[in-house]
Amino acid sequence: MSFPRFRNVLLHSKALINVADLNRSLKTKNTLRPLLGALQCSDIKLVSTYEVKSTQKSDSLVQRILKKIPFLNVDKVKIKASGYLLYENIADRIDYINFFEKYKLPDTFYSWFVITEMHIWMLSARAMAEETNGPILRNSIVEALWADVAKRTKRLGAANPSIMRSQIAELSEQLQGAFIGYDEGLQSDDVVLAGALWRRMYQKQYAAPHNLEGFVRYIRKHMYLLDNLSMEEILNVKHVKWEGEFKSLRQGHSSEDKP
């Protein structure tokens, strides 16, 4: 796929989504296969039946009624709002230009997309460890991505809008495969994860081994950080940090980054 350059179009601007997008119903497909099922099952076994029943009995009559009325489900609305804010936290904080330079990625919309997609996948993988609200949060983040993509592509002003729409549709279809590939790498070893990154980031073209290794380290590090955050902390957004490696990038590339 041939995408326009992205450097001069809203690269460092805030995510182009708005509150109105929250009012749309979820149309995003389930993009994560249940590879974390084992984790979820183990979590379920650790929760006693008594504790679950006690929690349910503690709900008042009003609370039980409210839970049965979708448009009054305040918790779901809050989770969806957090999903949009978590997406903005990615789009606004990631230093994409330095990412392009460090990992030798072309300065294109595609590169912006797959970097953003990788961070969304990390949040999605962590969210899906939460059986109750995980899917809501994941779907909300992905929904925010497509809302932002639609607005950014308009601002890019592609010469042939129909071709651009076709390419975006292709990215949408590929996103599920990318998530599955990253899931497999996360569940297995670094070689499998590096292979998934090579296929997605570099589109099966040449990639220096140290760049793939850097991506793997970045993912392992941030998955560790996310795993050590509670769901409440993640929904609070401010506890989710993507800064780590970018501080060193701003200080200049080290000699080990050279091929």
Question: Could you explain the architecture of this structure?
Answer:
This protein is mainly α and 259 residues long. It has one domain. Helices cover 64% and strands 0% of the residues. It has twelve helices and no strands. The chain has helices at 37-46, 49-58, 61-67, 74-93, 96-102, 109-127, 134-156, 161-187, 190-201, 209-227, 231-235, 244-250. Helix 6 (109-127) runs antiparallel to helix 7. The longest helix has 27 residues, at 161-187. The two termini are 26 Å apart. The relative contact order is 0.14. Mean pLDDT is 76; it is low at 8-13, 17-57 and 244-259. This is Ubiquinol-cytochrome c chaperone domain-containing protein. Belongs to the CBP3 family. Residues 101-236 form the Ubiquinol-cytochrome c chaperone domain.
Q: What distinguishing features does this structure have?
A:
259 residues; mainly alpha; 12 helices; globular; disordered C terminus; Ubiquinol-cytochrome c chaperone domain-containing protein; Ubiqinol_cyt_c_chaperone_CPB3; Ubiq_cyt_c_chap
DSSP, total strands = 0
Distance between the termini: 26 Å
Can you count the helices?
12
Give the % helix.
55-70%
Q: Which percent range describes the beta-strand content?
A: under 5%
The secondary-structure element order is HHHHHHHHHHHH
Mean pLDDT: 76
Largest sheet, strands/sense/barrel: none
Poorly predicted spans: 8-13, 17-57, 244-259
Shape: globular
- Helix/strand/pairing class, anyone? mainly alpha
Radius of gyration: 20 Å
Count of folded domains: 1
